[in-house]
Structures are given as structure tokens and as C-alpha cells.
Write a structure and sequence with these properties.
Helix 1 packs antiparallel against helix 4 (75-103), helix 2 (41-58) packs antiparallel against helix 4 and helix 4 packs across helix 8 (196-208). Helices cover 41% and strands 16% of the residues. It is of the alpha/beta class. It has a single domain (5-404), classed as Vaccinia Virus protein VP39 (Rossmann fold, 3-Layer(aba) Sandwich). The protein has an 8-stranded mixed sheet, with helices on both faces. Strands 4-5 form a two-stranded antiparallel sheet. Helix 12 (295-305) links the parallel strand 7 and strand 8 (306-316). The protein starts with a strand and ends with a strand. The protein has 14 helices and 10 strands. The protein is globular and about 75 Å long.
């Protein structure tokens, strides 16, 4: 797999990890599909969010749309402001594209790859832009600390038992904020991510974004439902709330100095090799375990990565991502004979899946060589939640630490 690329604060920092994969046609399609989806963000958002609404608005009887177009409703003005908000979001999306192309030594998406993004990929681009609210705004700190707090507390307790700074792996690292925070706390942190939407976005924000507050995002602009006020609907947030390179370079030199790296790979394929056997003191899993079609494989690879006595810190719900959508030809291998060559693993795409309850996972941890040392239930963990919305969704997650026997 590509080697983890170290974080660097210089202008010429190279975020490796995806450059090597462009020689593979399918990998190239996925990467350029992700880039193209960010490039198409503005066009698709303008069409879906404002163009269709204008068309529906003018389909009203003239007396009605004239009423709504005038004060105090100013509906057409609202649509104009919505377009401006989408354009502001698009500046971030375009910056992600430019940073990704730069890592390939390109200025533009090759013509053959323009317009290739699927609807699902464009949806991911939109959700990634929204995710910056959670990971890289000041207001998102409430959500972050609900999840990061238990991780940092467990890390601190574990560090007291070690003379060396802990090495921690963060699978499903997303936009890289937890990796950054662990580094800022003096740990040697490595993030792993399979989604190129997340990888491209984290590459930009960690290595290329020039300053704090460089962008302004409008995370609630894509839907017109459940807003108490238009000011809330069109609320903006500066991104990022902190500039990673500046924050790390301004730390007390006498304090423990952490390191940070990111690796693009399927967790199951990339970390099951001999190189990663016992390589980490800690695996920090935040909203990650329920992305597994086969949790046994996740736990096996996590245990493989941990040194003897190492710990798995987990925070998150159980929203099983592959429920009713098992990988591998609906739960079988490609030729349908039920026999899969596990010596040639496709990682997360291997056939087979199952979903467990929380109490069953506790039993499974014991069966796979872990001892659960502590567990907290009903940890309130909102996820990209507009606190002013009339619709509030909330995970009551669990947080626990399990030690490798």
C-alpha cells in the first residue's frame, strides 16, 4: 500500500498516498470521479437548490408569487442569497480540486475525466463540504468533543503508563481533525481513509489551506426544511477555525512533539500485513466500527495492528452502513458458488456481512482476544447537526476501551 505521508508545514509539502494509484485504471476513475464531483458541486447545487425552486415559484398564480416576492418574504431575494452561499461553498470545493490536481502535477482535470462523476459521487462532494462544519469550524467543536473527549481522556490515561509517546492509528480518519488533535496533544498519529472525497478534502485542509478562516461555508443551504428563520438557514461559518501548520509550529517546544501522517488505503488490506504487526499502541475508532460489513475482520486487523497490551478506543453508534447492501454480489463471491479466495482479499469488498447489537459486540470482543476495561453508554453525539433546526437527530453512542490480551 502507499506509505503514510507525513504532515509538513512547508509550502512544498507533498501529501503522498494517492499519486501512486493513478496508474490503475479503476483507481484513476475513482480519483478523478471524486475530483470531478467537487468540480461539479456548484452547477448541480444551483440546479437542484435554486433553479428548480424558481421554476416552481413562477408556476404559482401571479398574485401569489408577487406576494411572496415582496417584503417581508422576499423569496426571490432568498434564492439569490442561496446562490451566493452555494458559490461560497464552491470556492472550498474548487480549492480541494486544485490541491488534488497539484499533487498529480496537473492544472486541470483531463478532458477524458470531465463530467464522469456519478450522482452518488456528487452527493458525497456535497456532504463533504457540509462535514467541514463538524470538523473544521469553531461551532463544530461541540460535536467534535463529544467524540474526541473520551478518546483524549483514554489516551492521557494510557500515556501515564508509558515512557514513550504513544503511536495511535485512526482508521476512517475522514477530514483529519482527530489525527490533528492527537498530534497537537503530543502523540504520533496516523490516519487511514479509503474515501477519496475525504482524502482530497483532508489533503487540502491539512497541507494546502493558507490560513485560518480562508473559506466561508453555508452547511444548511441545501435544504429549505425545518428552519426557524432565514438567518439560520443562511448562516455561515469560517473554515478552518485553526490553521494546522501554524498551530503546530507555535506549540511550546518543551512539550512532547507529536507527528501526523495520512494513508490512503482499504483498512483491511493496508494494515493486515507483517509491516503493521504490533505497530501501534492505540487504535482510535470514532464512528468507524459500524462501517464494517464484517466486524470480525475489522477486529482481527485491529488486534493485528496493536502491540501486546495495546488498546482499542471506540466511540460511536451502530448505524451499520452495509445493512441490506452486502458487498460481494449480494453476499456471495463473483461466480456465485459461495467460495471466496480469502488469500486474495478485496478488503471491505469481500463477500459476506452481518450486524450485531451492542451487547453482542461486547461478547465478540472477548472472543477475539480483547478485555473491555470500561464502557459508557448514552453518550450524546450529534453529527453535522444544525442546533437551531426544528428537526434534531442525535446518536446515543457508546464509548469503551478494550485491551488486547
Amino acid at each position: 500500500m502507499p506509505q503514510p505521508a507525513p504532515f509538513a508545514s512547508t509550502e512544498e509539502s507533498a501529501w503522498g498516498g494517492i499519486e501512486e494509484t493513478t496508474q490503475d485504471p479503476e483507481e484513476a476513475r475513482v480519483i478523478f470521479g471524486a475530483l470531478d464531483s467537487f468540480a461539479q458541486y456548484a452547477k448541480v447545487a444551483h440546479f437542484n437548490v435554486t433553479h428548480l425552486r424558481r421554476r416552481s415559484f413562477y408556476a404559482l398564480p401571479q398574485s401569489q408569487w408577487q406576494l411572496l416576492a415582496a417584503a417581508p418574504f422576499n423569496y426571490l431575494s432568498t434564492l439569490d442569497k442561496t446562490d451566493d452561499a452555494i458559490d461560497s461553498n464552491a470556492l472550498l470545493a474548487r480549492a480541494i480540486v486544485d490541491a488534488g490536481l497539484k499533487s498529480f502535477g496537473m492544472d486541470e482535470i483531463p478532458t477524458a475525466w470531465k463530467g464522469v462523476a456519478k450522482h452518488t459521487e456528487i452527493d458525497k462532494a456535497r456532504s463533504t463540504v457540509r462535514q467541514f462544519y463538524r470538523d473544521w469550524t469553531r461551532d463544530g467543536e461541540i460535536e467534535r468533543m463529544a467524540c474526541f473527549g473520551p478518546v483524549l481522556a483514554a489516551m492521557e490515561a494510557e500515556q501515564k503508563q508509558s515512557e514513550e509517546q504513544l503511536k495511535v492509528l485512526v482508521p476512517g480518519a475522514g477530514l483529519g481533525r482527530l489525527v490533528f488533535e492527537l498530534c497537537r496533544h503530543g502523540y504520533h498519529a496516523e490516519g487511514n481513509e479509503i474515501s477519496y472525497h475525504q482524502l482530497l478534502a483532508s489533503q487540502y485542509i491539512l497541507n494546502e489551506c493558507p490560513r485560518a478562516g480562508e473559506h466561508t461555508i453555508y452547511p444548511w443551504v441545501h435544504t429549505f426544511s425545518n428552519h426557524r428563520s432565514r438567518s439560520n438557514h443562511l448562516r455561515s461559518y469560517p473554515v478552518p477555525d485553526v490553521h494546522p501548520a501554524t498551530a503546530l509550529s507555535s506549540q511550546d517546544p518543551a512539550a512532547p512533539q507529536g507527528t501526523m501522517a495520512m494513508c490512503a488505503a482499504d483498512f483491511l488490506c493496508g494494515y493486515s500485513d507483517e509491516e503493521h504487526d504490533g505497530a501501534y499502541d492505540v487504535v482510535a475508532s470514532v464512528f468507524f466500527l459500524d462501517t464494517a460489513p464484517n466486524l470480525l475482520r475489522y477486529l482481527e486487523v485491529i488486534r493485528h495492528c496493536l502491540r501486546p497490551g495495546g488498546i482499542l478506543i471506540n466511540v460511536g453508534p451502530l448505524l451499520w452502513h452495509f445493512e441490506n447492501n452486502a458487498p460481494g454480489n449480494h453476499g456471495t463471491d463473483d461466480d456465485g458458488d459461495g467460495e471466496h479466495d480469502w488469500n486474495n482479499s478485496s478488503g471491505i469488498a469481500d463477500p459476506g456481512s452481518f450486524e450485531l447489537t451492542e451487547d453482542e459486540i461486547m461478547v465478540l470482543l472477548d472472543k477475539t482476544g480483547f478485555d473491555v476495561e470500561w464502557k459508557t453508554e448514552n453518550v450524546e453525539t450529534p453529527y453535522i447537526q444544525d442546533q437551531e433546526s426544528m428537526l434534531q437527530t442525535l446518536y446515543r453512542s457508546s464509548a469503551w476501551v478494550a485491551r488486547k490480551r
